[in-house]
Each structure stands twice: as structure tokens, then as C-alpha cells.
Specification:
The protein is an alpha/beta fold. It contains 21 helices and 16 strands. It folds into two domains: 131 residues, no CATH class; 289 residues, Alpha-Beta Horseshoe (Leucine-rich repeat, LRR (right-handed beta-alpha superhelix)). The strands form two sheets. Strands 3-4-5-6-7-8-9-10-11-12-13-14-15-16 form a 14-stranded parallel β-sheet, with no helix packed on it.
């Protein structure tokens, strides 16, 4: 009764091939649930030398070190000997499911499993061990969940096992990884396309030199928060990894404009550049990125404290297809930066300029008139903007979905009226952040009642907003999430015949 309906649904959704794979997987699991009646010990994966390195425990689902594995193996061996004396179990490799399904189909099913599941399957039988450890099942590996237990031999073991099959590897947060392990990885996995080394604090220029020498297909690299990376790393990447398209070098504080120049000249196909907290980078470095990377779609320069309007001018002049721009916490920027973006980046969709305290209404007027496709704007702590900026956005930017005006203390109900009556209000506006806007009152909530798509509004520390105003807004927009905070009411001074109390100092006075 259920299977025909389920089969019809899956066929419409995934096609007959996908439906067959799904039913095969369900059947495979059900068959072994009935066949296998024994306690499985911890799974392990052997390296080419036969040493147990990668470990997944059924309870903790984590990777363990080699010593822990040895202790657990002894316990499991003892338990299995006890089980074998009381029961006879059919050989796993002779199971019907292994004979009826071709190896290619089994490999295809195994390819949908994650690391933990593959480790478990590797312990079922010798045949499944071969299937689970086949390199084709290890094309994308994310070890972030096991970051505390990942050491160099684990990476070397995975590299040797996966070889050219591995396309994506994430070692985010694995602080025990060193240059030696990644050198072996670079030599073994030359088809790697995505590599995440975020917060791997022990890697240095040697790793990037190995990547540049062997991994020419690398397209996405994250080496953010790696303090030992210097300009030599960017030079090596620029020479060898010319196919790089997405680069994150945030918070690598030793990098300077010379490194960015070497990277930009070699990797001209970069379309996403993330360089937060590059305090030594100046306008010249950003200018090289803008000049040589003509395909740039996203640039994030949050907290690059040394850049000025000249850097943004280069971006506006060269990156006409830019969609995302973050220049938050760049305190030296002025309205000239907004003018440059308005003149050159007409396709801009997202702009983040939080804490740029020198921006005024004039700059946002020039931006809004030219960047009519803006969808998300973060203007938090742009303390000089007034209701005039909101008027420009309401008139010229009809596609705004999310707008943050937190700590913009000059915004009043009139500005919110412009937003509420603008073209973006009825269809597009979803998120509005107004926390710490002291001049906002319940009248602003009245102006927003026509925003039928509004999903969330922030009203923290808006002292003139009342509970009654929020209730009226929720009556009109029942699905809206209102985040507000009301300070406890201060208790009134004591009245009546209560005895007045003074401290000793007041009595003396």
C-alpha cells in the first residue's frame, strides 16, 4: 500500500535511477539488520602499513589516537571470543546482499555515507572493508567534528588512501596539523580542489609552497587565522595555483601589500577575496587585487584599518561586476568611497559599512542613485546618517531585503515612514534592525504595518517603544518575530508614614 505511493513520489523527485538507489540502500540496511546479530566493536581504518590511525567509536563518534585504539581492540577481541563460543554466525562475506548487488552499485551506495558511517561499515566484513575504504568514497572529507584528535598521521593516512580521488578536505580547527603532514598530502592528492586550513596555527610557508608545487587544480583555499603565514606563501600560491577562485587569508597579520600583489598577478581568476583584519595591507595591495582580478564578485575587507578612499576607488574603477562589498570597521573611509562604489559597481547587491562613522547622507545619496539592485545593507553605527538616507534608499533601492540601522541615533519615525511606504516595503523587506535608536517610537511600528513580508525586527533599547505598540504590530503581522527588551520598572519612593532613612553622612550634613 505504501511502497507504490512512495515509489511514485521518489520517481517524480529523483528519477528512476535515484529511486532505485534509494530502495537499494534501504534493502541493504534491512538485510544486514537481519543477518548480523553480533556486537560490533570500534571501527578502525588501516593505513598502507597496517597501523590503526583513524578511529570511530559507536558511542562517541569521534576519532581516537593509536594508543586508545589498541586498548579497545583488546577488549573487543576478548568479547568476540566469548560470543564465538556460544553462537555460530554466517560468514559476512557470504551474505546474499553482497552476491546479488554488483560492486559498482554498492560503491555508489557507499558514496553517500559520511566519515563516521564509512568507518562503521569498514568493520562489518572484509568485503565491506574494501568497499568502505575505496578512494572513490572519500572525495569530500570534513574533519572539523574531530579536530581535537586529528594529528599528522591521520592526514597522511587519508592522503595515501584517497590519492587522486580526494577533491575537498576540511581541517578547520585541527591545530595539531604540521607542515610535514600537509606536504605528504600535497604530493598524494594532486587533484584537490577545495582545502580549508582555518585556524591550523602550526602551518607555515612550507605548506603553501607544497600546495603551489603539486596542487595546480586548487580552486578554493582558506588559510585564515594561520599566524605563521607570510608573503612567501602568497607568492608560492601565485606561481603554482593559478586556478584559485576563492581565497580567505583573514587575520594573517604578517601579510602586506607585496604578498597581495604576488597573489593577484598569478591568480587572475579570483572572484571571491576575503581579507579581514589585514592590518599591514594598504591601498596599494587592494589596488593590485582590483586591477588584476577583473572577475571579482565578492570582497571582504572588514577591519583593514590602513586602507583609505583610494583603495575603494580602485575597486569601483576596476570591479564592475562586484556583488558583495564589506568595508566595515575601516575607520578612515569617507563619503568618497560610497561615491566610487556608486559610479563603478552598479551590480552591487550587499554592502556592509558598519562602524564607518565618517559616512553621511551625501555619500548614501550618491550610492543609492546608482546601485539600484541593493538587497542587503548593514549601516550599524553610521552615526551621521539621518532620515534623508532612508528616503534615498526607499526611492532608489526597491529590492532591499535586510536593513540594519542599529545605533544610528539620528533616525526618527519620519525615516521609518519612508521605508514603510517605499517600493521595497510591500514585497521584499524581511529584516529590519533598529536596536539602540533612541528616537524611534510606536509611530514607526504603525508605518511598518504595511510590510507584509517583514519577518524580524530588532528593537533592543528603543526606550520609546511600548508593549502596546508591539502588540498592535503583531496583530497586523502575526508571523513577525519582534526582539525587544524592556528594563524593569524602577520601584516608586516610599510613601505614607514610613520612617525616612539616612546614611550617617546625610545625618551629619
Amino acid at each position: 500500500m505504501v511502497l507504490p505511493i512512495l515509489g511514485s513520489f521518489l520517481t517524480d523527485r529523483y528519477g528512476w535511477q535515484g529511486t532505485f538507489l534509494i530502495f537499494s540502500g534501504v534493502g541493504l540496511q534491512g538485510a544486514y539488520c537481519g543477518i548480523m546479530i553480533k556486537t560490533l566493536g570500534p571501527s578502525s581504518i588501516r593505513s598502507a602499513q597496517g597501523k590503526y590511525v583513524l578511529f570511530c567509536d559507536d558511542n562517541s563518534h569521534q576519532l581516537r589516537n593509536k594508543n586508545a585504539i589498541s586498548r579497545r581492540r583488546r577488549k573487543v577481541a576478548t568479547h568476540e571470543r566469548e560470543v564465538s563460543t556460544t553462537s555460530t554466525i554466517t560468514s559476512d562475506d557470504d551474505a546474499p546482499i553482497n552476491k546479488k548487488l554488483p560492486k559498482e552499485l554498492l560503491l555508489r551506495i557507499f558514496s553517500f555515507l559520511d566519515v563516521v558511517s564509512l568507518c562503521r561499515c569498514a568493520q562489518v566484513s572484509k568485503f565491506w572493508n574494501i568497499l568502505a575504504l575505496d578512494g572513490s568514497n572519500w572525495q569530500r572529507v570534513d574533519l572539523f567534528e574531530f579536530q581535537r584528535d586529528i594529528v599528522g598521521p591521520v592526514v597522511e593516512n587519508i592522503s595515501k588512501r584517497c590519492g587522486g580521488f580526494l577533491k575537498s578536505l576540511s581541517l578547520r580547527g585541527c591545530q595539531s596539523i604540521t607542515d610535514g603532514a600537509l606536504k605528504t598530502f600535497s604530493q598524494q592528492c594532486r587533484n584537490i580542489e577545495e582545502l580549508n586550513l582555518n585556524n591550523c596555527k602550526d602551518i607555515s610557508d612550507t605548506t603553501c609552497e607544497s600546495l603551489g608545487k603539486y596542487c595546480h587544480k586548487l580552486a578554493k583555499l582558506d588559510i585564515s587565522s594561520c599566524p605563521r603565514i607570510s608573503n612567501n606563501s602568497l607568492a608560492a600560491l601565485g606561481n603554482g595555483c593559478i586556478n584559485l577562485k576563492i581565497v580567505d587569508i583573514s587575520w594573517c597579520t604578517h601579510l602586506s601589500s607585496d604578498g597581495l600583489e604576488a597573489l593577484a598577478k598569478g591568480c587572475t581568476e579570483i572572484h571571491t577575496f576575503i581579507g579581514k583584519g589585514l592590518t599591514q595591507v594598504t591601498d596599494a595591495g587592494i589596488g593590485h587585487i582590483a586591477k588584476y582580478c577583473k572577475l571579482l564578485k565578492k570582497i571582504d575587507l572588514n577591519s583593514c584599518s590602513n586602507i583609505t578612499d583610494e583603495a575603494v576607488h580602485e575597486i569601483g574603477q576596476n570591479c564592475h561586476g562586484l556583488l558583495f562589498c564589506c568595508i566595515s570597521n575601516c575607520a578612515r573611509l569617507t563619503d568618497a568611497s560610497l561615491v566610487s562604489l556608486g559610479h563603478g559597481c552598479h551590480e552591487l547587491r550587499t554592502l556592509e559599512v558598519a562602524c564607518c562613522s565618517h559616512f553621511t547622507d551625501n555619500g548614501f545619496q550618491a550610492l543609492a542613485r546608482n546601485c539600484n539592485k541593493l538587497e542587503k545593507m548593514d549601516l550599524e553605527e553610521c552615526i551621521q546618517i539621518t532620515d534623508a538616507t532612508l528616503n534615498y534608499l526607499a526611492n532608489y533601492c526597491p529590492n532591499i531585503v535586510a536593513l540594519s540601522l542599529s545605533h544610528c541615533e539620528l533616525i526618527t519615525d519620519e525615516g521609518i515612514r519612508h521605508i514603510g511606504s517605499g517600493a521595497c516595503a510591500t514585497e521584499h523587506l524581511r529584516i529590519l534592525e533598529l536596536d539602540n535608536c533612541p528616537l524611534i517610537t510606536d509611530a514607526s511600528l504603525e508605518h511598518l504595518m504595511g510590510c507584509q513580508g517583514l519577518e524580524r525586527i530588532e528593537l533592543y533599547d528603543c526606550q520609546l517603544i511600548t508593549r502596546a505598540g508591539i502588540r498592535r504590530l503583531r496583530t497586523r503581522l502575526p508571523n513577525i518575530k519582534v526582539h525587544a527588551y524592556f528594563a524593569p520598572v524602577t520601584p516608586p519612593p516610599s510613601v505614607g508614614n514610613g520612617r525616612q532613612r539616612y546614611c550617617k553622612c546625610c545625618v551629619i550634613l
